[in-house]
Amino acid sequence: MLVLGAGLQGSACAYDLLQNAAVEKVTVADLNVDKLPPFLERYRGDPRLELVRLDARDEAAVLEVMEGKHACMNALPYYFNLDMARLAVRAGVHYCDLGGNTEIVFNQLELDGEARERGLSVIPDCGLAPGMVNILAAAGIEELDEPETVKIRVGGLPQNPEPPLNYQIVYSLHGVLDYYTTLSWVLRDGEPKQVEALTEIEHLEFPEPVGTLEAFHTAGGLSTMPWTYEGKLRSMEYKTLRYPGHAEIMKAIRDLGLLDLDPIRVGEQEVVPRQVFIAAVEPKLRKPEGRDLVALRVEAEGRKDGKPTHIVYDLLDYYDEATGISAMERTTGFSLSITGQMQARGQVTRLGACTPDQCVPADPYVEELGRRGIRIRKTVS
Length: 381
Known about the structure:
The structure is a single chain. The protein is α/β, with parallel strands linked by helices. Helix content is 34%, strand content 27%. The protein folds into 2 domains: 2-126 and 329-372, Rossmann fold; 132-325, Dihydrodipicolinate Reductase, domain 2, CATH 3.30.360.10. The chain has helices at residues 8-18, 38-41, 59-66, 81-91, 102-109, 112-117, 132-143, 173-181, 225-228, 246-255, 273-285, 327-344, 356-359, 362-371, and strands at residues 2-4, 26-30, 49-53, 71-74, 94-97, 121-123, 146-158, 184-188, 191-195, 202-206, 211-217, 235-242, 264-266, 269-271, 292-304, 307-318, 352-353, 377-380. Strands 7, 8, 9, 10, 11, 12, 15, 16 and 18 form a 9-stranded mixed sheet that branches. Strands 3-2-1-4-5-6-17 form a 7-stranded parallel sheet, with helices on both faces. Strands 13-14 form a two-stranded antiparallel ribbon. A hairpin with a 2-residue loop joins strand 13 (264-266) and strand 14 (269-271).
């Protein structure tokens, strides 16, 4: 198995692969493989783990490292995703990644014919959101005779929130701010539409000690699903979960121009407001000793056997004290690993290029999550 990227998510993916005795070898390739997270560092020197220095911009080198692999799991930044998918098809290797950019996903889906001819599956969007939430949403839709609405709520949060934002960095702050400043695609009255991020705030209750969380629109979580289900559902939306009050503060920061990407003049210099904001804020939000959690709720409503039916999937996952792996790494990196292993075992429902809601069967996927202690609770009413 090949993992591209030795950051936190790629390392979590590699760690998970190494827990499966059926995986003979895990190759982790990145520009820098000198420093690994402690949970993977302990495997350095293990004959099952191979570390390769790789520049993802070197096409020949990427093809060489892909040679002979059963599956490639890409945890590099999203702007590499299209090139890596194309190269995986050329190399004859199953491929999945963490997604992160809907336009790139649409381009990856154009590889469908070539991937299918070669007997391969290419699956973008295989993290937490997009990824896990999309698989659960599709399962809920499939269970209903007449599906009508889908609501997806998910967030990575500190276990011990500190004001004013009650937030700690659990993945790229650049990525978070992109989601806060980009219009969000939803399905309304059966049609894809855009809504402003950080709006339509609502409150949800989770079991203690989490309690009340707020949910608001952010971009990216649905990926291509508004177009997949256009005309098939009345509404579908994705919202991010945070502790109450977070959205209003971030909306004020955004509306004041502090997250803008256009340079402004300050004295004799030009500066980009968002770069200044990140430089000032990131050290305060990066808490190396902080423990995180992931909260998730996916709801599908409609009719089954002629009766109104409400299907809910709930998840609360926490930082793993035993391994030092965060909840965000467990739910994202492990999800990528599970998908890659399902591809290699021939467990996906179709070949070619497709999103996880179209080709990753929910039951074995959820079962694999459960084996890792990531337990999804399903209720039907």
